[in-house]
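Record type: monomer structure entry
Structure origin: computed from sequence
Chain ID: A
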Amino acid sequence: MTARALPFKKILIANRGEIAVRVIRTLDELGIASVAIHHRVEKRAKHVRLASEAIELEGASPVAAHLDGPQIIAAALRCGADAIHPGYGFLSENAGFAQAVADAGITFIGPSAGTISLMGDKISARNFAEERGVPVAPSVMPTDDLDAFAAAAEKIGFPLLIKAAAGGGGKGMSIVREASQLKEAARIAASEAQRYFKDGRVYAEVYVEKPRHIEVQVLGDGKGNAIHLMERECSVQRRFQKIIEEAPAANLPAALRDEICASAVRLAAAANYKNAGTVEYILGADGRFFFLEMNTRLQVEHPVTEMITGLDLVKAQIEIAAGFGLPVTQDQVRANGHSIECRICAEDPDSNFMPETGSVDYLGVPEGPHLRFENALNSGQKVTTDFDPMLAKLVAHGADRNAAIANTIEALKDLEILGVKTNTDYLIRVIGHPAFVAGELHTGFIPQYADELATARLTTEELDKALIAAALGFKEFRDIAFGLPEPHASIGYWRN
């Protein structure tokens, strides 16, 4: 399908940062004009500079501006945009926004509002999956009676995972290992869920010890046809949030891979899913897998799927939204090599991954045909707490997993971001860890190897040597320390 055949002449991107830059790249290739939105503090942002045009949004804060659906739709109508691409985060899984976009006569590049409502609520999604024969973990649904909820949860057995019904990103989630912790954990989870999602419902499900987090990229045409684009491994996480993803998953038996992917396709087809989505699973050491949730949007980690399949998922999204159907058939999907993505975050891994602030004083980006550095960074850019601490994504490809690991480590070592502390060195230690190399992954990987992954502490002697070596690297220091006064300096090297 050629770009000229597409019905869209201009698409507004209801997002910012690296995903906005990513979408703009594909729009440029398709010959479609792009519209960036921004708060006043983002006036010089990279996505603003790269877009065909930009519109400033009003808002008490940058996040408030990007969550103002009516203002964004008004901007789209004002500039004559044919469609809106929501990216990920912000309003990408907001059913009300999707419906309002459609009601305004603008194409929403994503699933319908009804599908977002169905799959966005973890409880309704779970029930829908179970009815379609997709395995789900034993659980207890929410109730206003906390005593009854606790009693029912105890019958399932511990450990349990308390989760927010409308949540994501690890918010409103906690592990409970004994009955005495249950009520307080549920209360705290409900409070956090209400704060972040305006929905205080929580539920409990069996917690699988040392599970793997496997997800399947799916595409649907909205007419009951769906395909998968292989799976991704997202098990390496901190605070329930992914920091390393790869495709395909390591050490996954072919039969189990086929079963998981087929399950995801069955779910998407049953939901008449339209556009790109991701079905997520928990995989136990015993080979049993359970439906976790479905993300009705493009994922942060979509580049690893693009790297092994050769498909442009943003282009596929646009074509499906235009009514062109699926870009390939299932038998045309092939995995070529292996790909790993690292989330480069402004954070301190040695301080429980607390976000860091500063400025990007210097950016040195590794290059190569096997690399992608997805970012929206500018030299001198301020890194604040206004947004998520993820600065960029480094994606590497290799002929196999070992080659992808080697390429990722080399690229991380070559990446230079000065002016703000990042997790780059920590990622090198994780990917180089023997257990990671062996593919022995689970969601508790980081806590299990915390001591081995921590920054090595120098002894006083080692620190002194390092300081001396650093000092010797400065010409001014050498001149002061070893310079000779005239006339002796003119004599050169001599001995008594």
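Annotation 1: Residues 3-109 form a domain with the Rossmann fold fold (CATH 3.40.50.20).
Annotation 2: DSSP finds 20 helices and 23 strands in the chain.
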